[in-house]
Amino acid sequence: MPMLSPNLSKELSKKLSNKLSSKLSTIFSACSVFKRNPLSETLLGIDFGCERINAVALRALPAIADQPTAYQLQAMASVATPSGAIVDHQLHNMAQVVDALKQLRRMLKVPTRNVATAVSGSSVTTKIVHVPNSLPVEMLAHHMEQEAAAHIPFPLAEISLDFEILGPSELHPDRDKILLSAARTEHVQARVDALRQVGWRAQVVDIGSHALARAVCFLLAPPPEQRVAVLELSAESLTFMVISQGEIIYQRLQPLAADSEPATLSNQHYMAQVTSQAQRQLQLFCSNSGQTSPLQLLLCGSDTDLAQLVPRLSHTLGIAVQLPDFSVMFGGEPHHYSEAPAFSTALGLALRRSSPCLI
């Protein structure tokens, strides 16, 4: 997992929660947020989808020496997103979204108010930049603002920015890799406002693909040398990414062509389109990176027929394809978590308290 470089981590944890520039504001939580939200408290992961709004509530169990943190799954719940209320990952009808969230809270029956949620889609941009590790902390925010002006395709006045030091650059030992993230402020604020109207408090606003990658690493715990591909489906788009050593090394959001038939896997045209796009993205990863194909792909999404796609994808791509299995971490039988593929991003959000952001 990425770690803060020693020379800046202590000071940065104090500085990140402050607005060091009027144009810099926080997307991700700073370390101080989690000091106010002890690890033992329950955290809700709320994933806003165009088809459904999904929630996972996790409570961290008491730590055991030399053992990774274990979690208790307290609740999972999902409500249908009203038609047209969320389009292209953005909230279009606040009143309908709030009504759906109220229904979701009644279903969860979890007393915590602490929520982690995410922004996704074309309004979200991330980029890795390299900066001298000798740069004083008080100058770092200003430098990040300059980087954002050069790399982010939105006016600075309209976006929220955040950055996180991931560690020393492999190519330049005197520089640090920094994850620069940006999203339109109105889209971040819309989620925060919707949650507030239900009585929830957004402590973290993450990026959807980062949360999904976090869940994948938690569920699979792949060995460092193994790359894992992830394919997440929705009615509007598919997200394809490749994870290596806990980091996203390739990521694409691919819109799916509209069709007169429902965008479900029972629609053969939709299934063929998904299969073709997955094959294309895998080929692009291999050709662009010069690396061989991952040996494993995790398939996520809310379609009830997702299992039907597993053998078709495995045959077409020539790699092992599987669905998320929550029983590995939370006990019980796999059939007890038949809807797990739809809850993967929400799971990753609920894990946000103790896991760093992924590239």
SSE blueprint:
Blueprint: H1 6-15, H2 31-36, E1 42-48, E2 52-60, E3 71-80, E4 86-87, E5 90-91, H3 94-108, E6 114-119, E7 124-132, H4 137-151, E8 159-168, E9 175-184, H5 185-197, E10 201-207, H6 208-220, E11 228-233, E12 237-244, E13 247-255, H7 268-289, E14 296-301, H8 306-317, E15 320-322, H9 327-330, H10 344-350
Helix pairs in contact: 3-5, 6-10, 7-8
InterPro entries: ATPase_NBD, FtsA/MreB, PilM, SHS2_FtsA
Pfam family, one: PilM_2
Protein name: SHS2 domain-containing protein
Structure explained in plain terms:
The strands form four sheets. A five-stranded mixed β-sheet has the order 3-2-1-6-10. Strands 13-12-11-14-15 form a five-stranded mixed β-sheet, with helices on both faces. The chain is an alpha/beta fold. Helix 3 (94-108) crosses helix 5, helix 6 (208-220) crosses helix 10 (344-350) and helix 7 (268-289) packs across helix 8. The model is unreliable at 1-39 (pLDDT under 50). The chain contains ten helices and 15 strands. The protein folds into two domains: 1-220 and 325-359, ATPase, nucleotide binding domain (Nucleotidyltransferase, domain 5), CATH 3.30.420; 221-324, ATPase, nucleotide binding domain (Nucleotidyltransferase, domain 5, 2-Layer Sandwich). The chain has helices spanning 6-15, 31-36, 94-108, 137-151, 185-197, 208-220, 268-289, 306-317, 327-330, 344-350, and strands at residues 42-48, 52-60, 71-80, 86-87, 90-91, 114-119, 124-132, 159-168, 175-184, 201-207, 228-233, 237-244, 247-255, 296-301, 320-322.
